[in-house]
Amino acid sequence: MSKDILVGDHFLSGDVAAAEGAIAAGCRFFAGYPITPSSEVAERMARRLPEVGGIFIQMEDELGSMAALLGASWGGKKAMTATSGPGFSLMMENYGLGMMTETPAVIVDVQRGGPSTGLPTLLGQGDVMQARWGSHGPYQAIALTPESPQECFNLTIRAFNLAEKYRQPVVVLMDESLGHLFERVTIPPREEIEITDRKILKDKNRDIYEADEDLIPPMPPVGEGFGIHVTGLTHDERGYPSINAETQERMIRRINDKISKHAPEIIDYEEFMTDDADVIVVAYGITARSARRAVIMAREKGIKAGLFRFKVIWPFPSERLEELSDREFVVAEVNNGQALVEVERAIRKRAIFVGKMGGEPHRPEEILKGIEEALK
Amino acid sequence: MATESKTEKLLQKTGASLPRGEVYLIEDRCKGCGLCIAFCPKHVLVVSDRFNKKGYHPPELVEEEPLNVCINCGFCERICPEFAIFVKEKKKEE
Amino acid sequence: MSIIKAETHPLDDYLRTERLPHVWCPGCGIGTVLGAYLRAMKNVGLDSEKSIMVSGIGCTGRTAGYVRMDSFHTTHGRAIPFAVGLKAARPELNVTVFSGDGDLFAIGGNHIIHAARRNANITVIAINNFTYGMTGGQLAPTTPETGITTTSPYGNVESPFNLAGLIAVAGASYVARWTSLHVRRLEKSLEKALKKRGFSFVEVLSQCPTAYGRRNGMRDPVDTLKYFQKYAVVKNHVNPLEGVIEPNKPFILGEFVDAPEEATFEDKLWELTKSEFLHTSQAERSEWIIEHRRHLEILSRIISGRGEDNEQS
């Protein structure tokens, strides 16, 4: 059996499944800093990476971890880190550098209750907007929200594929409950795993930030005489600093457009019993599991309820939600209303909000109450 | 200067000659900071009256035989922050 | 005889000449230090295609934008971890970090001590101009006591870091300090730093006439260099803890640490990936690690001036 893809059925936590997904996707570099509840990802990577010829570094902090990730990514490696809220906050600096310099990387953020140190060992879902807007300036985030260890594996692979394809950091938004939840994870054989690698620039005379028609420039290799210059300053197609509104408009619009124009390909969601639903519960991550149960309980009571679950939360599936906007909506999440504002913007009306400040997942009954309230 | 006269005496005694250099300048790179002028051990550079494209006064050469001549030490080339000035060894005219 | 007009400079092959003139003020020392670095590169025959420069933010942080090699201008303070990641991923590349005192020792202070501790095989050139030049001349962790800056208008009440001492104690394999006036010795020292396997660190004191000199009686760039000329004492292999810099007092320049080469951080990371290493027993792995450990007792003897190394001077 190959060492990188552990084909077969395993009993894994969400954290470990995400690590295995990374290795299956070709991740060969990890830099990180221990933080509950994500440390198991780092621990798994520390054990596994040397076995597959990869490098693991425990950095001095999350600022350095994210910087090391970008360095390794330019060195040609698929690179990942794992963290939680307080560390994710520190990573925002070079999350932005990754956006600006168009550097593939994957951040697994196992969310815990916040703000600040908050609830290190208990869940939260309060990093949704941070993943979207946490670093300053205009950019388009890509964030995935698995609901099970199996999806932690699958969506971490997809996160790498998206990072490589679109050349930017991609976030896997997990949460404490999911990270520590053990379930069966089936790892398929290599030929059933779809892997995307970055486009590599071959022509030394071509400007390194000259994009193809898909708005994505091929990534130049380092150490091969391209003489590239990469900067976090606003830069022109050559990669040289160009501090003016015209370049800002052209280049920053492109890095935004490369995601927004491909949003239909990136967006992924699950609809459960929405066809005839009068009320739709929107949820993601661990909350979606409670919401699914709530929908079934509602159906048992004769209420036509359905579930809309993000697998990719950024870019946001506004169009599909708008199509469903003749129904009533309930939004459940472990924060004080983050996906809520996007949902309401898409459906152009208020939704019933079933929020929790964090520390425990929703009980299905809490969401069921929301469903009933929506139909009043 | 004491050291120079010592050197000069030594040169006269031994019949040896100092290496000679030629000073080159990419005039429009110069920002007129004056470091090459201030630190030339042979004091062969002065501020010129001319302006370059950017409005700075580049250095010019004032060689006075036998002491104030460029000896190709390369200090101006090394101290110049602008990659503007450099020296090359002057071939002896036979 | 007059100055001969030239179109190209001997270092042009190493420069992005299309980006000249650079952003640095007239008389700023950064260009001088960059020149010394490029000459050292040329002298040791470093392949510029396999050489990478990483900079942080600030005046010195702009250096990466002018060298004709793969170069990265990263975020404030993060040049070192970016370089550590790149070097770990691609150990065959020569990686230099070229940045300023504020970038490397204030916002990036944590990273540099850890990179030195790990003996990451990178070369770090720290231009110390005693201030934050790019933002207009604020207090830096290197500003001398009494120094006037825009954020210490009554004179700096803090004590500055002794950068060479700090990095020596953190575990660097090579530590030296020069100034932008001591260009030849700087060049030779940079050659050694580039060749050294392990963490090498060269501090270069430099003038900032615009933001620091102007407020401290050294308005002309020449003034600071004359100051260096007056107070610099060149002495090799002195205990780097004696390398404190105080206003209007002699300060030491020279090579503080030139330790015997040891296995680098990257050597060890890559050893871990070998199946012969992974498949041995834990006892054998521990033995390998001990065999390749850093000889910190030797390093501390060198630092304290009690090492054999000290006798060379």
Helix content of chain B: 10-25%
Tell me what portion of residues of chain C adopts beta-strand conformation: 15-25%
| Helix and strand sequence of chain C | EHEEHEHHEEEHEHEHEEHHHHH
CATH hierarchy, class of chain B:
Alpha Beta
Question: What is the CATH topology assignment of chain B?
Answer: Alpha-Beta Plaits
For the record, give the distance between the C-alpha atoms at the N and C termini of chain C, rounded to a whole number. 43 Å
CATH topology of chain C: Rossmann fold
**Quaternary structure of the protein:** heterotrimer
Please give the share of residues in helix of chain C: 25-40%
* CATH architecture classification name of chain B: 2-Layer Sandwich
Count all strands of chain B and give the number: 4
Mean pLDDT of chain C: 95
Note the overall shape of chain B. elongated
Pick out the low-confidence regions of chain C.
309-313
CATH architecture of chain C: 3-Layer(aba) Sandwich
- Tell me how many strands of chain C there are: 11
Integer-rounded radius of gyration of chain B: 14 Å
Characteristics:
heterotrimer; A: 376 residues; alpha/beta; Rossmann fold; 2 domains; eight-stranded mixed β-sheet; five-stranded mixed β-sheet; 13 helices; 38% helix; 22% strand; C: 313 residues; two-stranded antiparallel ribbon; 12 helices; 35% helix; globular; disordered C terminus
Topology:
The complex is a heterotrimer of chains A (376), B (94) and C (313).
Chain A: E1 8-13, H1 14-25, E2 27-32, H2 39-51, E3 55-58, H3 62-74, E4 78-83, H4 85-101, E5 105-113, E6 119-123, H5 128-133, E7 143-144, H6 149-166, E8 169-175, H7 176-179, E9 182-187, E10 229-231, H8 245-260, H9 263-266, E11 269-272, E12 279-283, H10 286-300, E13 305-310, E14 312-314, H11 318-323, E15 328-333, H12 339-347, E16 352-355, H13 364-374
Parallel strand pairs in A: 2-3, 2-4, 4-5, 5-8, 7-8, 12-13, 12-15, 15-16
Antiparallel strand pairs in A: 1-9, 5-6, 7-14, 11-13
Helix pairs in contact in A: 1-2, 1-6, 3-4, 10-13
Chain B: H1 2-14, E1 21-25, H2 35-39, E2 45-47, E3 59-61, H3 75-79, E4 85-89
Antiparallel strand pairs in B: 1-4, 2-3
Chain C: E1 4-5, H1 30-44, E2 51-55, E3 70-73, H2 79-89, E4 94-100, H3 101-107, H4 109-118, E5 123-128, E6 131-132, E7 138-139, H5 163-170, E8 174-179, H6 183-195, E9 200-205, H7 221-231, E10 232-234, E11 251-258, H8 265-272, H9 275-278, H10 282-291, H11 296-303, H12 309-312
Parallel strand pairs in C: 2-3, 2-4, 4-5, 5-9, 8-9, 10-11
Antiparallel strand pairs in C: 6-7, 8-11
Helix pairs in contact in C: 1-6, 3-4, 4-5
